[in-house]
C-alpha cells in the first residue's frame, strides 16, 4: 500500500524499498586478501660520510570480492589491488656528509666540511587501470553495475604494448576500445576488475636535497637545506580516460579532444621540479 506507481520492480525487491538509495553494508566481511612478495634490502652503515640503503620488492597481491563484478559468483571477482599493486619496486636512499678536513687551514677546513647531499629515489611499476564499465544498463534494473568483457587476443593499447613508450597526448589515443565488449543485455560481465598487463604509466619519484650543518658550540647547531622534488624535471602526462570503452574518440584539427583513451594534454601527471629552503636550529 502506498508504493509509488512510477517506481521500478527492482526498487520493490530491495530489502527496504522505502529507501530510494538502498542501505549499504558497513565493514561487511565479504572478501579475502592475499599478499606474496620477495623482499631484499642492502644497507651501508654510516662510514666515511656515506649512509646508503636499497630496497627491492617483487610482489603479487590479490583480492577476492572487494570490487564486485558478479554478485552471484564472488570467486570470479579476483583482482589485483587497485591502489597498491606494483609488482616491482625499487627504492634507493643515500646521504653523504663531507667529513672534517685535516692538514689544511682551519678556516678552509671549516668552510669545506659538513656539507651534505641526500636523495630518495623510487622506481616502480605503474598502477593498474580499472576495466571499463559495461554500458548494457544492468545497473538500472538491479542497482549493481558490471564491467565490460575483455576481448581475447586484441591489444589493450593502441600502437604500443604499454604506456611507458613515447606518447604525444595532442595526437595519440592510447587505449584500444576494440579490446572491450559489453555483456548481453541483462547479463553480468566476466572480466576481472583489473589486469596485471593493463597499467598506467610508471611515475618515478626522485627527490634530492643539498645542505650544510653549522655547529655553534657543543649543543647548538644550525642547518640550511635546499630540497628538490622531481629533480630531473620529468614531464609526464595525466592518466588517460578509461571508464567507458564506448566513449567516441574525437579530434579537432588533428588534436585529440575526448573519448576512450584520451589524454588531456593541458594537464600534467606530476608537478614540475620544485624546491624549498629549510632552515633549522637545534639547541
Biggest beta-sheet profile? 8 strands, antiparallel
Strand content: 25-35%
Q: What is the number of helices?
A: 3
Mass-distribution shape: elongated
Whole-number mean pLDDT:
88
Fraction in helix: under 10%
The helix/strand order is HEEEEHEHEEEEEEE
Ends distance: 76 Å
In short:
By secondary structure, this protein is mainly β. The chain has helices at residues 9-12, 106-112, 138-142, and strands at residues 32-47, 50-64, 78-80, 88-97, 115-124, 149-150, 180-181, 205-216, 220-229, 250-252, 255-258, 274-282.
Secondary structure layout plus pairing:
Layout: H1 9-12, E1 32-47, E2 50-64, E3 78-80, E4 88-97, H2 106-112, E5 115-124, H3 138-142, E6 149-150, E7 180-181, E8 205-216, E9 220-229, E10 250-252, E11 255-258, E12 274-282
Antiparallel strand pairs: 1-2, 2-3, 2-4, 4-5, 5-8, 6-7, 8-9, 9-12, 10-11
Amino acid at each position: 500500500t502506498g508504493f509509488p506507481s512510477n517506481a521500478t520492480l527492482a526498487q520493490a525487491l530491495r530489502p527496504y524499498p522505502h529507501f530510494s538509495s538502498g542501505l549499504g553494508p558497513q565493514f561487511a566481511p565479504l572478501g579475502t586478501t592475499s599478499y606474496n612478495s620477495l623482499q631484499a634490502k642492502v644497507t651501508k652503515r654510516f662510514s666515511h660520510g656515506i649512509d646508503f640503503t636499497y630496497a627491492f620488492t617483487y610482489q603479487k597481491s590479490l583480492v577476492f570480492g572487494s570490487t564486485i563484478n558478479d554478485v552471484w559468483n564472488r570467486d570470479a571477482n579476483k583482482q589485483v589491488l587497485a591502489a597498491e599493486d606494483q609488482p616491482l619496486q625499487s627504492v634507493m636512499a643515500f646521504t653523504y656528509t663531507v667529513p672534517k678536513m685535516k692538514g689544511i687551514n682551519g678556516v678552509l677546513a671549516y668552510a669545506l666540511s659538513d656539507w651534505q647531499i641526500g636523495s630518495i629515489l623510487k622506481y616502480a611499476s605503474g598502477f593498474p587501470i580499472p576495466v571499463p564499465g559495461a554500458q548494457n544498463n544492468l545497473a538500472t534494473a538491479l542497482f549493481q553495475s558490471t564491467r565490460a568483457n575483455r576481448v581475447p587476443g586484441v591489444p589493450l593499447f593502441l600502437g604500443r604494448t604499454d604506456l611507458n613508450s613515447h606518447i604525444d597526448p595532442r595526437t595519440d589515443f592510447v587505449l584500444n576500445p576494440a579490446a572491450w565488449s559489453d555483456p548481453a543485455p541483462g547479463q553480468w560481465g566476466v572480466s576481472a576488475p583489473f589486469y596485471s598487463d593493463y597499467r598506467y604509466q610508471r611515475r618515478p619519484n626522485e627527490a634530492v636535497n643539498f645542505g650544510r650543518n653549522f655547529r655553534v658550540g657543543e649543543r647548538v647547531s644550525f642547518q640550511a637545506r635546499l630540497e628538490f622534488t622531481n629533480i630531473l624535471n620529468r614531464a609526464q602526462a595525466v592518466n588517460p580516460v578509461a571508464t567507458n570503452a564506448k566513449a567516441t574518440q574525437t579530434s579537432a584539427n588533428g588534436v585529440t579532444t575526448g573519448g576512450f583513451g584520451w589524454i588531456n594534454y593541458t594537464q600534467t601527471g606530476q608537478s614540475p621540479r620544485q624546491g624549498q629552503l629549510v632552515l633549522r636550529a637545534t639547541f
